[in-house]
Amino acid sequence: MKVVPYKDQKGSKKEQVADMFNNISKRYDLLNHLLSMGIDIYWRKQAVKILKKHQPELVLDIATGTGDFAIQALDAKPKKIIGVDISEGMLAVGKEKIKKAGLEDKIELRMGDSEKLLFEDNKFDAVIVSFGVRNFENLEKGLSDMFRVLKPGGKLIVIEFSKPKVFPMKQLYNFYFKNILPLIGKIISKDQSAYTYLPESVNAFPDGEKFTGILDKIGYKETLCKPLTFGICSIYTGSK
């Protein structure tokens, strides 16, 4: 059974995820930094360090949300970043943020389904995703479409939550994710389901070697998993 945000509602996971992010979009950035205690910024910077080494000119940011990863990825000096997302609410916040920063010539945000990308084959030098792949309706389909739009030799970089396995971080993490995080998320976002879905979706996600195994199966080469912050988060990389 797939993990979905709203168990009492009909609709596909994709539809429910879009609704959820529309509901929390105006509070998302605040909650993201608050609930991670700002560590999410460090995680993105570590991913961009990897991206820099490949000197990409054209980058696709999947599940771009409010554009934080796209903005951070400008440190890699690409000519252009295109961000796609299924949530109109998140994109509206992101577009306003990019406009205020004067970055409209560098970053373009579009509505887009990560599993049906409206781009030709072999287009992008790099595809990046920050905390988005666990929300896919069909994980392998989404990863396969990313592979399709990557140029030969292009780089995939995925940041995603993972599950710590060492005492006491494992126990502390589980307590925080199951008890503290949903409570704070509910109070600030006014959406009880969104921050209950987060730990459930992380728990269901095939992290570590399971995820790199899926990348290998699809055809990515040189796949690696780099755990960060005691395994709370991991950066996954692969090449076409």
Automatic annotation (TrEMBL):
InterPro entries: SAM-dependent_MTases_sf, UbiE/COQ5_MeTrFase, UbiE/COQ5_MeTrFase_CS. The keyword Transferase applies. Gene3D superfamilies: Vaccinia Virus protein VP39. One of its GO terms (biological process) is methylation. S-adenosyl-L-methionine binds at residues 66, 85, 113-114, 130. Transmembrane segments: none annotated. It comes from the Bacteria. Pathway: Quinol/quinone metabolism; menaquinone biosynthesis; menaquinol from 1,4-dihydroxy-2-naphthoate: step 2/2. It catalyses: a 2-demethylmenaquinol + S-adenosyl-L-methionine = a menaquinol + S-adenosyl-L-homocysteine + H(+). Keywords: Menaquinone biosynthesis, Methyltransferase, S-adenosyl-L-methionine, Transferase. It is an enzyme of class 2 (transferase). Its EC number is 2.1.1.163. One of its GO terms (molecular function) is demethylmenaquinone methyltransferase activity. Methyltransferase required for the conversion of demethylmenaquinol (DMKH2) to menaquinol (MKH2). PANTHER family: 2-METHOXY-6-POLYPRENYL-1,4-BENZOQUINOL METHYLASE, MITOCHONDRIAL (PTHR43591:SF24), METHYLTRANSFERASE (PTHR43591). Belongs to the class I-like SAM-binding methyltransferase superfamily. MenG/UbiE family. This is Demethylmenaquinone methyltransferase. The gene is menG.
